[in-house]
């Protein structure tokens, strides 16, 4: 699948699940003087740390080769990636942020989940993940967010 508009839009969207975006979001929230936003930052930090750790363990255990390596004819765009694809770390991070934010601010839940879903779709579109990688990242980020929000 190839579309000039998506070729332009998907690379920036994919970076909404990046380490840099996650760190900036979390840092700005933690430094915010508003107690609710500060608490959001702390819980987001915990969620990202736990979900990223689990994601890394699973990635290194499963060792799933990325789609663009196995499937020829993919419309790939060169973006920074690590070696393995399962689960999607960008999707895990995007859902960790979106679900945690949605638990603090339910009125933004739909927008946050849609945006996180776009990150997952971008990963598939760019040829760096299979749909199951993205589903696993969605599950991991969401479950970790719920557990951190309700337990910690």
TrEMBL record:
Name used for this protein in its record: Phosphatase PAP2 family protein
Domain spans labelled Phosphatidic acid phosphatase type 2/haloperoxidase: 40-149
InterPro entries per record: PAP2/HPO, PAP2/HPO_sf
Entry membrane topology: Multi-pass membrane protein
Secretion signal span: none
GO cellular component: plasma membrane
Transmembrane segment boundaries: 12-31, 37-58, 104-128, 134-151
